[in-house]
Amino acid sequence: MSSSAHDPVSFDFNDDPTVTDEIVTSYDNRDQILFVVDCSPEMNKPEPNGSIPIKVAFDCIKSVTLSKIFAATSDRVGVLLYNTNMSNNPAGHEHIYILQGLDIPDAPRVKEAEMYSSEGDGDIQNTFGSTSKEYPFGNVFWTCSDMFNAGSISNQRGSRRVFLITNQDNPHPNQHNLRQAAIRRAKDFYDAGIRIELFGLDKGDHHFDESLFYNEVLAQEGGIDATQDEDVASQRVTGGGSNKVDELLDTVRRREPKKRTSFRVPLTIAPGIVIGVRGYNLIMPEKRSTPHRVTGAGERIEQVDTQITYKCQDTQQVLLPTEIKSAFEYGGTQVVFSREEINKMRSVKGKGIEILGFRRKEKINDMLNISLPSFIYPDETQYEGSHRTFTALLRGLLEKDKIGICTFTPRENANTLIALMYPQAETFDENGAQDRPPGIHIIPMPYADDIRDLPVTETPIATEEQVELATRAIFGGEQGGMEIKQIYDPNEFEDPAMQLHCATLEALALDKPMVERIVDTTKPNVDMINQTIGQGLKELRERLAADVGISEEDLRGQKRQLSDSKPESSTSRRRVDAGSKSIEDHYRDHTLDKCTVVMLKEWLERNGVKPKRVKIDIIAQVCHVLDKRQ
User: Fold this and answer.
1) Model confidence over 26-42: pLDDT tens digits?
2) Helix-helix angle 53-71:107-115, to 10 degrees
3) Could you tell me if 151 and 76 are in contact, meaning their C-beta atoms sit under 8 angstroms apart?
4) Cα maximum dimension of the chain
5) What is the pLDDT of residues 235-252, one digit of tens each?
6) For the purposes of burial, counting CB atoms within 10 Å of the CB of 307, is it exposed (0-12), middle (13-18) or buried (19 or more)?
7) What global pTM score does this model have?
8) Cα separation, 405 vs 577, whole angstroms
9) Which DSSP string do the residues of 429-448 spell out, in sequence order?
């Protein structure tokens, strides 16, 4: 292993060296979801557990609308009701009501969805009426198509999906002509690149049967344009999935995210053998949205248009972007590079993936993963035969239990990485729905310069008795304990800080009471731990305390002493020490970096100098003033 004297991030100019770059949502890749909700009398009947299907459907609408507000501000959501007495659509079709046209979600739309949800007192049946009268179901698809095609051409770009929620599995049991007309209309639907996601619900003991009607409707899915982005992480599986009303919200949440393509690159398997692949970021760190700068000087709050200009420090002339270059200090000399030169130095290969070889899985050190992986899937639009070749490669890796080693450059002017190609087989859950898609994970690996030597410290080694006691306490045995059978699932643990942030914004936007506390799923269940392995942990603690010569009374006394005294941290002590000396003393002792930014700024202001923002620049200002006094 080695360490580098260079700063490895110095050349990362306006770019992330990892592969997990965020995808900027544009009109070409935005997601459009139209909720189509059945309002028939059967959807308004309470289930045995008390839940009403139509209200649960609006719970889903509210949840998706809120998620779009926080995570995808350019996506559009709409709501269409059918089997209503009232009608509201451009074509004048009966029993079809457009509640919300396709548009960017906002607070009024969330409030309207909440009014008809389980939390609200609104009643869809009393407001819009409800009917079980048979009418051409193809008119529902017709109205959906009109809603997607309305407006400008930009509204017709990106993915377009219909979330159909109903418990009626056969809308035309005796009308063959109406049935065939609806199926033909569904084919036109798919030819236009619109995808249907069916959420069929059971009615009491009657299981929703897709084979009666919807299998023929959904069979048209093969007509989707191959250039459309596919949601590889949640593909529909005919039959199987859960149809329970109380699980509808979870099902919608799983299908709602749209996996947008992160990159399209060629995959070189061997000289002369090249296929096309698409890359997806299946895992992305959740981040708070960037706040906008606004002004309230006018009648309403408006967003500020930010403009940045650069001036020459000597002449104060405004500089054009082409006149600005980057300089790096090397050996006391400023080495200047243009943006184009920096981009050329950062990439040693053109964009793409090139396989270098293969190794067995057990030969790979799992600890060398330095970044989030990307997931690649074949792209037939780049090279014909990519699906077939990619499938053969994936099957070979799985059968031989091998991992590929490759170079990975996700886009032009990006850093070239060494990466692992980890194969993943398709799996299904207990309901028959796809759990994991087939494909290959691209896992970035470190270079030699990225690996650092850690200082070797001597640590106490536990005795065999201590290890046995700890094992018995945690995993079970004669003295108690339990066997841990639960598999870690990251979907069960939400970021508490992010949840509180979103709940606060939601409360302010919807005029709700502020949320002071949220359920923190990351905290351990102390009561459960005490009930299952509490006695074993107590014995282990007493044994360890006895081995080091500390009694239980002394241990409790030390805890009380620590909680009462609350000593200052080393950082606080350093600040006190720094504050006891003057800036001039620190200057002579070469310890200005020990001073706080507040101390340095106050000193500069007293000496008539406007302080800069960055601490290193502020220290340079102080040194410049004191150098003149010498």
Assistant:
1) 445 678 999 999 999 99
2) 160
3) no
4) 101
5) 443 344 446 666 777 777
6) exposed
7) 0.64
8) 53
9) -TTS-EEE-SEEEEEEE--G
